[in-house]
């Protein structure tokens, strides 16, 4: 079992995904629901998209070492198995979020680029009044629909990650402080 200053790594390592997943959910929600902030928080979300799964994997790895040490090589209890399952589900949810988020961010960048080109700007009519006409951006309507669908999927994955980090932490705390595992 890996230790730091004679303490098992797992109780130390579990704090990283708790913080990183919570920050990912917070900044992810800001990114999804507050478009003017997207350029400012986009880099934070990008870093967290990779740091959160890495920390979750570190917690799973150290947890398996601790469980093997505590069980003496015997089969794990049902509570430990459930706790590990929550960890793995969290990891795969975070990994699934990476391409979904990349697609959403790419579509948003395309939207912003089209706006800079003036693709969605209203055109002046012959009499001088401003009249909205069809967009110069042929992908605008389709992009909005795809962004909405991908945004819903990203939101679902963020909320699932928040639920799973809670369940994983609760099951671990219940084992330690609830008396399930000594």
From TrEMBL:
Keywords: Membrane, Transmembrane, Transmembrane helix. It comes from the Bacteria. The keyword Membrane applies. The chain crosses the membrane at residues 12-34, 41-60, 86-107, 145-166. The keyword Transmembrane helix applies. This is Uncharacterized protein. It comes from Glycomyces paridis.
């Amino acid at each position: 079992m890996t230790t730091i200053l004679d303490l098992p790594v797992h109780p130390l390592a579990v704090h990283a995904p708790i913080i990183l997943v919570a920050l990912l959910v917070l900044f992810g929600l800001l990114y999804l629901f507050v478009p003017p902030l997207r350029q400012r928080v986009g880099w934070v979300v990008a870093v967290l998209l990779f740091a959160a799964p890495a920390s979750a994997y570190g917690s799973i790895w150290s947890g398996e070492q601790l469980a093997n040490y505590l069980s003496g090589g015997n089969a794990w209890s049902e509570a430990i198995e459930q706790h590990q399952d929550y960890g793995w589900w969290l990891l795969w949810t975070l990994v699934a979020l990476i391409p979904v988020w990349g697609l959403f961010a790419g579509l948003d960048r395309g939207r912003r680029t089209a706006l800079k080109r003036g693709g969605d700007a209203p055109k002046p009519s012959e009499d001088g009044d401003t009249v909205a006409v069809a967009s110069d951006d042929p992908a605008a309507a389709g992009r909005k629909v795809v962004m909405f669908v991908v945004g819903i999927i990203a939101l679902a994955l963020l909320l699932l990650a928040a639920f799973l980090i809670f369940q994983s932490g609760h099951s671990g705390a219940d084992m330690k402080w609830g008396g399930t595992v000594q």
